[in-house]
Design brief:
This protein is an alpha+beta fold and about 475 residues long. About 35% of the residues lie in helices and about 20% in strands. The chain has 15 helices and 19 strands. A hairpin with a 2-residue loop joins strand 8 and strand 9. The longest helix is centred in the last third of the chain and has 22 residues. The radius of gyration is 22 Å and the shape is elongated. About 55% of the residues are buried. The mean pLDDT is about 95.
């Protein structure tokens, strides 16, 4: 079978009216469209980029869920209260508790829902700040994001849901009671107005907007970003035009492991550390628990003042994280037949690196990391040649702040009232993650709250 290719609809096919309009064709938007369609709504998706999938396409580690059937089948006894507590702790206790409770309670169901749509996440890994393997990914261990987007687009094609690319929504339309009634869209054929009873903002964050980063976090303005170029906060601006409430906008996550040595920034997925990779400095020594939260690990790398650090792993670990094949293909991976070879190739002290890896392997065998207290991602020693390294630096990765929503994905205005007919889900919304997002929680958020948006829009439209 050939590679799946999705063909978006032509701008000339845009109709005057839909039950629900979805702005953004990433994980949240695609999920919401499928769910709303299955509940009987006439849905359309508008995406400003020519490519579909948004930042979801770049997600590589997994989708977190607790008490899932996949976990049970693999003998992992998890507890959603632990998932709740660890996410709250990871977010500096600043998460919206109601959103977090809904998220945790619906995570396993979201995995089942994907399975039901042919998107099977049956392999497990672990990410920083988690105590159990909660990050679900494809059996092939392929990056989760593109797999999810491809699976969702196959379903959308089957359901004949119209998707319009190069279609930028520039305005939300309202009636005299401030209820949202439609959108203004700029297409390659010109501008059109389209009416709808419900509108979902699923347009992603603002990790690629120098303008908004300068406004909310001027200290990060010179950092590179792992985000796709279209992540410029358009949904936040649309919401702002109609007085929607924004929250926690200064909470911007820096991801510890990005390859920033060329113009194109590559995110090196957290799952690589989850499978057993370690971080070393220029002297060839570890300096942090690699699976602390992203905030802690990023700060530790920045505090080295050495232009980043190196991820070190072997063939055995590489076999369990297939995204490395892509990283190697684009030239990000240094090789060495022995650890000393590798040290020479990356310019670190060979004797130190050998000693570091010997000590690390003992820690894995003893299940005790005396040096930095790491207790997860310790199933594979680094012993099977060849050996590999990737030079990494922290980069802007995720914007935790955004539109203030409730658990129904309804949007609040600045007076705390619900803006009727308007919904938001995914990275465009704020509150769920607190001041630091746990790896694997963004894909989970897009599916859990994308589904919820689809359900709530259906309920709203049917009650009109």
């Amino acid at each position: 079978m050939g590679k799946f290719v999705f063909t978006p609809n032509k701008a000339s096919e845009i109709q005057e009216n839909y039950d629900a309009i979805i702005i953004g064709a990433g994980g949240a938007g695609l999920t919401a469209a499928i769910q709303a369609h299955e509940l009987g709504l006439k849905v359309a998706i508008f995406e400003k980029n020519s490519d579909l999938g948004g930042n979801t396409n770049r997600a590589s580690s997994g989708m977190n869920a607790s008490e899932s059937l996949v976990q049970i089948q693999q003998g992992i006894i998890d507890d959603k209260e632990d998932f709740y507590r660890e996410t709250l702790k990871g977010g500096g206790m600043m998460n919206d508790r109601e959103l977090l409770r809904y998220f945790v309670d619906h995570s396993a169901l979201a995995i089942d829902w994907l399975m039901d749509h042919g998107i099977e996440l049956t392999n497990l890994t672990i990410t920083g700040g988690m105590s159990k393997k909660r990050a679900h990914r494809p059996a092939s261990m392929a990056p989760v994001g593109n797999y999810l987007v491809t699976g969702a687009l196959k379903q959308i094609q089957e359901d004949k849901i119209p998707v319009f690319n190069n279609a930028k929504v520039t305005k939300l339309l309202q009636d005299n009671k401030q209820q949202v009634t439609g959108v203004q869209v700029d297409t390659l054929n010109g501008q059109v107005k389209v009416s709808a009873s419900a509108i979902l903002l699923a347009s992603g964050g603002f990790g690629s907007s120098k303008e908004l980063i300068k406004k909310y976090r001027p200290d990060l303005v010179n950092y590179q970003t792992t985000n796709q170029p279209g992540a410029t906060g358009d949904g936040l601006k649309l919401a702002g035009q109609i007085d929607a409430q924004l929250e926690q906008m200064d909470f911007i996550q820096v991801h510890p492991t990005a390859q920033t040595d060329s113009d194109h920034v590559y995110l090196i997925g957290e799952g690589l550390r989850g499978e057993g990779a370690i971080l070393v400095n220029k002297s060839g020594k570890r300096f942090v628990n690699e699976l602390s939260t992203r905030k802690i690990v990023s700060d530790a790398i920045s505090n080295l003042n050495e232009n980043g650090a190196f991820l070190i792993f072997d063939q055995g670990i590489r076999n369990n994280f297939t995204a490395v094949e892509f990283y190697d293909h684009v030239g990000l991976v240094s090789h060495g037949e022995s650890i000393s070879d590798l040290a020479q190739n990356i310019g670190v002290t060979a004797s130190n690196l050998n000693e570091t890896i010997t000590n690390w392997n003992e820690s894995v065998t003893d299940k005790t990391d005396k040096e930095f207290g790491r207790s997860t991602g310790m199933e594979h020693i680094i012993a099977q040649g060849p050996f590999f390294a990737i030079h990494i630096n922290p980069a802007i990765h995720y914007t935790m702040g955004g539109i203030h929503i409730n658990t129904q994905t309804e949007v609040y205005d600045t007076d705390g009232n619900i803006i009727k007919g308007l919904y938001a889900a995914g990275e465009v919304s704020g509150g769920l993650h607190g001041n630091n997002r746990i790896g694997g929680n963004s894909i989970a958020e897009t599916v859990i709250f994308g589904r919820q948006a689809g359900i709530q829009m259906s309920k709203f439209v049917k009650n009109q």
